[in-house]
Design goal:
Helix content: 10-25%
Structural class: alpha+beta
Strand order of the largest sheet: 5-1-7-8-9
Radius of gyration: 14 Å
Number of helices: 3
Number of domains: 1
Strand content: 35-45%
CATH superfamily: DNA Polymerase III, subunit A, domain 2
Distance between the termini: 29 Å
CATH class: Alpha Beta
CATH topology: DNA Polymerase III, Chain A, domain 2
Shape: globular
Number of strands: 9
């Protein structure tokens, strides 16, 4: 049983606005799997930089090394940099059937909302990590 205070997720899901990102699920999932190889107990975060229809993902672990990959995306906002645990995205994409996913970003400190482009049966809310 989980204990603790959780954000009011219903309020987060209803938020309109923010920046919309559309990307190919399989390509994004494979990128995050490669990045998660560098994850450890102390270094779980992966940096996501969204800008100019491009996503750059960077993972750094001083004990193992560093990796950076980029992919083209459909993005309609200002440049934004956020850190996430890639495992949460990988787990979310594992239950989505759509080929494309939509990510709604509010800002660097607020959670993002993920859903399949062709399906509305599942919504995931992922909190960013502090950089």
């Amino acid at each position: 049983m989980l204990e603790g205070e959780f954000p009011k997720y219903a309020d987060i899901i209803k938020i309109k606005g923010g920046h919309s990102v559309r990307l190919q699920k399989d390509e994004f999932q494979m990128m995050l799997r490669r990045m998660s190889i560098l994850s450890s107990e102390n270094y779980m975060g992966v940096i996501f930089r969204f800008s100019d229809d491009k996503l750059v993902v960077t993972s750094t672990n001083p004990d193992i090394g560093e990796s950076e990959e980029e992919m083209e995306i459909s993005y309609d906002g200002d440049a934004m940099e956020m850190a996430f645990n890639p495992r949460f995205f990988i787990d979310t994409m594992g239950v989505l059937d759509s080929e494309s996913i939509l990510i709604n970003l509010i800002d660097e400190e607020k959670p993002c909302i993920i859903e399949g482009e062709d399906e509305q049966r599942f919504v995931s809310v992922i909190m960013p990590m502090r950089i």
